[in-house]
């Protein structure tokens, strides 16, 4: 199966990823189609200091079709569903290309954390704060949730 | 980086703030204005430049199609988080997994009804499609029949150009038993490896697909009668066919990326939503299922140095243009896509051996008559 060969290569690549990337990513030991990732909250954002866990479920026809990615750690962000952790990101849907890798997807999600797109919110409370220009309100809510829910010792990112 | 590019826009939206809001989000903006106390002006601007982004390599990832989310979401979300709203009337939004599952089941249904590449059929099969249809089409098919004898259909899944092209090309290699041409294209693909890396693709992204297409090519060119059925079997196999299409898309995209100056006038003129060639590559070339246009065809013919003839079957009556038509009947236009390096050449390589039939939105393979 093409997806398996590709995923094994990606797993090797991820093991070599530099620590300062702020992303760790590895497949489940028993199932190469389920991956777990950790993103360090980008510095200079309300998520700084937090570590956010992601689950990636990779379809059999990967890389022709995108993985399905969710935040497992709760996060207050306009483009992440507060309850389900679902992420609204174009490359996970129609703009997916086989040139992306799972690691690049995590980098894109990290970039999305720093650059929210409040005009297409999955979390309207977060989106409304930003659309209303209340950046301070947004930042303090997001920071509050980061401190409360995402600040367990970041052992995965040594 | 996206944040900094957006900042001025966001600033200007804030200063010209009105509850009507920016076009496509009018309703949800109104909701927001009603359910939330007004924000004091002084607080609005002071955060704009604050966040420093740390990942800068993946620009543009989060934008354009984000805005295409349906409006129902806003309503659902508001309902969930605001207990005062009545939630009963709002249907639950399907999850991404459900949407993907549905898309997969649709694809499977299509797959069962038509293979990636069909069987070779006499051109009469095409006439049959239009028996009760447009007279223009029937006239044009008559004109086509003077030059072409058969057609092979491809699946209409947005990848038909790539699939039709590579099948027709490989089939010609089998029929002509041309080891020279086969070796040329294999060498060409081998030379693409460093070029793909230079174009920014990680090796792990394309190496499996490249090996697969080279294996296919290397197995051709021996005058074995089982060769054609074997080719048909392989190119109908999802594992092979899809990877081959993916590889051709990456080649096309890399060719566009490396000759931006040449291609950008075509792309920026034709696709309103593409601010750059790179954006076009990521949005309309690399994703599977995105349909091909002239730009894709030019880039692929250049990338592989293989000329292609496209024959156009449509409603137009432009008899004045060059075509395979004749004086009285309806002329059928065609266009030869010949790589620049071959344009002044006279050898057999300069004459298109791949003939594709274009009907608006779809490409199939055409087979010239022996006498033509």
Q: How would you explain this protein's 3D organization?
A:
Chain B: InterPro entries: OTU_dom, Papain-like_cys_pep_sf, Peptidase_C65_otubain, Peptidase_C65_otubain_sub1, Peptidase_C65_otubain_sub2. Chain B: It is an enzyme of class 3 (hydrolase). Chain B: GO terms for molecular function: cysteine-type deubiquitinase activity; ubiquitin binding. Chain B: One of its GO terms (cellular component) is nucleus. Chain B: Keywords: Hydrolase, Protease, Thiol protease, Ubl conjugation pathway. The complex is a heterodimer of chains A (158) and B (372). With 158 residues, chain A is α+β, with helices and mostly antiparallel strands. Chain A has one domain: Roll (Ubiquitin Conjugating Enzyme), CATH 3.10.110. Chain A is 32% helix and 15% strand. Chain A has four helices and four strands. Chain A has a four-stranded antiparallel β-sheet with strand order 1-2-3-4. In chain A, α3 packs antiparallel against α4. The longest helix of chain A is centred in the last third of the chain and has 15 residues. The model of chain A has no long low-confidence stretch (mean pLDDT 91). With 372 residues, chain B is of the alpha+beta class. Chain B folds into three domains: 84 residues, no CATH class; 102 residues, Peptidase C65 Otubain, subdomain 1 (Phosphorylase Kinase, domain 1, 2-Layer Sandwich), CATH 3.30.200; 149 residues, 3 helical TM bundles of succinate and fumarate reductases (Up-down Bundle). Chain B is 51% helix and 9% strand. Chain B has 15 helices and six strands. A six-stranded mixed β-sheet of chain B has the order 1-2-6-5-3-4. In chain B, α8 runs antiparallel to α11 and α12 packs antiparallel against α14. Chain B is globular. The N terminus of chain B is likely disordered. Chains A and B meet through α1, α2, α3 and α4 of A and α1, α2, α4, α5 and α10 of B.
């Amino acid at each position: 199966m093409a997806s398996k060969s590709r995923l094994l290569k990606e797993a090797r690549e991820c093991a070599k990823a530099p620590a300062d990337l702020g992303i760790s990513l590895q497949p489940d030991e028993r199932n190469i189609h389920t991956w777990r990732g950790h993103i360090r909250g980008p510095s200079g954002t309300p998520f700084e200091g937090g570590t956010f866990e992601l689950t990636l479920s990779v379809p059999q026809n990967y890389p022709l079709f995108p993985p399905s990615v969710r935040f497992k750690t709760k996060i207050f962000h306009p483009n992440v569903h507060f309850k389900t952790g679902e992420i609204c990101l174009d490359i996970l849907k129609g703009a997916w290309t086989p040139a992306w890798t799972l690691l690049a997807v995590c980098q894109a999600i990290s970039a999305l954390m720093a650059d929210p797109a409040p005009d297409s919110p999955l979390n309207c409370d977060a989106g409304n704060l930003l659309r209303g220009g209340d950046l301070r309100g947004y930042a303090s809510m997001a920071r509050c949730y980061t401190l409360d829910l995402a600040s367990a010792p970041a052992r995965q990112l040594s | 980086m996206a944040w900094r590019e957006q900042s001025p826009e966001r600033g200007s939206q804030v200063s010209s703030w009105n509850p009507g809001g920016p076009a496509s989000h009018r309703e949800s903006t109104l909701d927001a204005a009603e359910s939330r106390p007004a924000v004091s002006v002084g607080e609005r601007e002071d955060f704009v430049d604050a966040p420093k982004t740390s990942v800068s390599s993946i620009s543009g990832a989060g934008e354009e199609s984000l805005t295409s989310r349906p409006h129902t979401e806003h309503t659902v979300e508001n309902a969930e988080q605001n207990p005062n709203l009545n939630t009963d009337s709002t249907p639950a939004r399907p999850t991404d997994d459900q949407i993907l599952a549905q898309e997969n089941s649709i694809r499977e249904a299509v797959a069962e009804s038509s293979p990636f590449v069909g069987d070779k059929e006499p051109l009469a099969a095409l006439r049959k499609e239009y028996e009760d249809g447009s007279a223009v089409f029937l006239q044009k098919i008559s004109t086509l029949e003077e030059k072409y004898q058969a057609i092979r259909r491809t699946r209409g899944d947005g990848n038909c150009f790539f699939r039709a092209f590579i099948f027709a090309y490989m089939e010609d290699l089998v029929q002509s038993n041309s080891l020279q041409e086969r070796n040329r294209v294999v060498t060409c693909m081998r030379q693409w490896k460093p070029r793909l890396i230079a174009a920014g693709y990680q090796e792990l992204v394309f190496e499996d697909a490249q090996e697969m297409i080279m294996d296919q090519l290397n197995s051709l060119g021996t005058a074995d009668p089982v060769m054609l059925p074997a080719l048909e079997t392989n190119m109908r196999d999802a594992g092979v066919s899809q990877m081959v299409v993916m590889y051709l898309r990456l080649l096309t995209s890399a060719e566009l990326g490396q000759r931006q100056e040449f291609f950008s006038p075509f792309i920026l003129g034709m696709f309103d939503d593409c601010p750059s060639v790179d954006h076009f590559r990521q949005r309309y070339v690399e994703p599977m299922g995105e349909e091909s246009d002239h730009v894709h065809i030019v880039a692929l013919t250049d990338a592989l140095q293989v000329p292609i003839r496209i024959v156009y079957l449509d409603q137009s009556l432009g008899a004045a243009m060059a075509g395979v038509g004749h004086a009285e009947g309806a002329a059928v236009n065609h266009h030869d896509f010949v790589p620049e390096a071959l344009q002044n050449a006279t050898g057999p390589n300069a004459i298109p051996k791949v003939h594709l039939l274009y009907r608006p939105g779809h490409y199939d393979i055409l087979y010239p008559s022996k006498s033509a």
